[in-house]
């Protein structure tokens, strides 16, 4: 299953030279907490609602003149869309961030995956495991079954 | 981290022509609930305490003369040691089993991984995620930071 | 929701003076791994498939003459049906067991809850939390809303 | 263990008649994403960094003159400090919020508990369960053990 299938929130983008107020309006209209700053469809920065409070309001900057690139977090760590879920979890832990832009093989932005997505995913796996296994117990050996050199390796 | 590092229980082996009573004694001595049946170090069957109750006792067979291969579950699905944790979880769900023998590239048995191992592992990941992320919030942008075409792709 | 609603496996009972072979047949017929030993509907022991292997077969006892009370684990810790899920999890951790008989207020057996049940339950909660929260974000304040000394305490 | 022991983030308070800019400065200084609005030590509102972006910036209000009570979410649902963890999880799901102020018996604010706290907690429980149980298996019956009408009910 492609990684983007697990992304619940839409990925909303903005240009680096747009104003912070444009980002604010996007957050309101699209009901997101974060916009990805792109140049030629590639992520070059990330800007969250919290960044706006701390880097614009707290600094008494004017949101209608300050550009996105002045206050964004530049060079966000991105995840290739082919990355495994487990590696993604490790990366989130290691870097201590809540979200990664996801990029295709050509480096273009295709989605954003968040901590909430991963929690829902891991919780679902655990629930499924509990359920699947509860029905295991011992099955009868199929009649006439015996060992033959079959290939039964997981791939 | 190699998959075998997550295996808590030792992998205990037996030959297919040994008696069920030998398996019983191994389960007692080594405090395990399952033995892997091997031929030339390759897993060809699996035998659990439950299998012994249902396939030997319930059938009134004699544990001191019945061979392991007569009552084992033949051809167990094995996991290559290079498999990803996430794929392993999917396989456990799909096949509805609690444990997989783990084999090296040459097909030889190197461990056994159980549902309990995976639960401990996933629980630990969730706890770590909660902890790591709780400290995220917004960091100041490093002074003078600006966007440059850095490579920041997870690998 | 009553605790027994979370119990997936049926609770199968046996009398202390029945034979181990009767327990074996019950485990086969009912597809369970454990029977609860009752006297006047109250749990006085527990017997698992594993106990039978280690305490009957390994000791070369005869399952058709050995009684259940001779090999059961006596005095199992039971959970009152009104216990909270969280307390139950703590108890499972503390006592290191996989299952608790559940008893009604009068001490009579009403169910059995297992580690698998709790894993399914906790996983489901985590998945639900991830899902519920992903849609939170900020809601507009209802028009005309203002603070009044309402009672908004969780109960 | 008291609920407040699970709260990782400090609870930061503000008065309803303070300015939004004061809230912003608190969020910056204390590194929190949310302040609790109190009157006589009782929570009467809550204000997050996101609320400030959507209700102040997006509405082009002036943070240095707008009061906290004009834009806070009034009447937040609070959790009594004696609430069980499980009930708290249910409430978070039901109400779709990420955090609850915690109040003592007299209604006074004593902490704030967040989704991140609960995820860390539940993950830790799962990891502990996997670990505790992996060592269960079957223990020998203590010599001379037999059933007596002991009280072995969880409390």
Distance between the termini of chain A: 15 Å
Q: Strand share of the residues of chain A?
A: 15-25%
The major sheet of chain A is characterized as: 4 strands, mixed
| SSE string of chain A | EHEEHHEEHEEH
Oligomer: homotetramer
| Low-confidence residue ranges of chain A | none
Q: Give me the number of helical elements of chain A.
A: 5
Instruction: Name the chain pair whose interface involves the most residues.
Output: A-B, 62 and 61 residues
Number of strands of chain A: 7
Instruction: Let me know the average pLDDT of chain A.
Output: 87
Can you give a write-up of this model?
The structure is a homotetramer of 155-residue chains. Chain A is elongated. The first copy, chain A, has helices at 20-30, 49-57, 68-71, 85-95, 115-134; strands spanning 13-14, 34-39, 42-48, 73-74, 79-80, 99-103, 109-114. In chain A, the strands form 2 sheets. In chain A, strands 1-2-3-4 form a 4-stranded mixed sheet. Chain A has a 3-stranded mixed sheet with strand order 5-6-7. Chain A has 155 residues and is α/β, with parallel strands linked by helices. Chain A contains 5 helices and 7 strands. The mean pLDDT of chain A is 87. Chains in contact: A-B, A-C, A-D, B-C, B-D, C-D. Chains C and D meet through strand 3, helix 2, strand 4, strand 5 and helix 4 of C and strand 3, helix 2, strand 4, strand 5 and helix 4 of D.
